[in-house]
Amino acid sequence: MAPQNTNPDTTDCSQHECPFTVSQLVAAMASENDILDRTTGASEEEQTSFADTIQQYWEAGPSKRFLCSLVRNYIRQLGEHNVQSEALWNLLLLALQQRHSEIPDPHQSCYVTFSMPTQQQKQLTVRIYPYHNDVALRIWEAGAVLAEFLLQHPEWVAHQTVVELGAGVGLTSLVAAACSASHVYCTDFTEVCLQNLQHNIERNQLDCTISCGYLEWEAFGNYQEASDPRLQESCEKIAQANLLIAADVVYDVCAIPSLVKTFQRFFSDSDKDDDSKTILLASTMRRRETFAVLQDELKAKGIDCNVVADGDYYAELPLVFPMNFVQPRKDVNIYVLKIGKG
Ligand SMILES: C[S@@+](CC[C@H](N)C(=O)[O-])C[C@H]1O[C@@H](n2cnc3c(N)ncnc32)[C@H](O)[C@@H]1O
Fold it and tell me: Where does the sequence pass through the membrane (predicted)?
């Protein structure tokens, strides 16, 4: 299951002028499988009717995140070449714009401060948006657990050149920097997330050099030199890095192939020996099937994946980043990924 929207403002329509009752909206959300079951072979009329219904829900309905994902899944299932309805194309456009334009309300942000016992109680402060829809604006279980793991085992990052993928608010990267990494480059892909990352980097004056930049997995996996200037810096940083870290990036099955391509480029895009390069991946087990897709994809690319710490291992460790998580911390596993030896 992908991280869920927990923003009550977007699901409770009582504060808006909403033409639907809450139960109608709940029914609409529950019927995703029904809608998708009826997608294959849908006529132009049916496509338009689907688009019109979603349009009606758009301004006052269930979360936009849910509606966007429904539209994308509908079109994926239909097959792009079978889209005949102009209304449906327009809706897809709206969904894509939405994905990149949700500007968080600054009043919905807050700062959380943690002190790190293994770092002489040094403090870290990060800005989060706990009620915003964007998954990149809060701290997830896997990010917190990986950060705690690094605090216990700073040898993984000390004097290493580190890149983080899908860094979100940057907690794990900041901890890596606090644990004496020689350089940390944290990456993500939306404008709002990168602005928040930059803010969090500046808020914490760490000794290690830490910076952030744009790295979208699909674009990066298919990147040819100079095809996208925004990716140039990330290419250079990935080539210099010897440790790649990533937390809670395995939840959308469609994104797994490009994520693994990014892993593969990390192992191959450098003069350094593959052996000196390692990936630490923290993943929350929501659906075993999703993780199995990752394992198959890694195997196909010759990347070995082994558990380095599981819930039993760190259940006893001190809780450094206590947040109100949806998933128990014990559901997070930490894996080490290396290029296989044939
Ligand atoms: C569930 S959040 C995890 C954030 C953080 N690592 C943590 O554990 O708190 C997933 C992160 O992956 C990023 N992400 C999702 N799809 C991506 C893509 N295609 N390219 C780059 N980043 C992506 C999101 O923006 C988000 O920051």
Answer: none
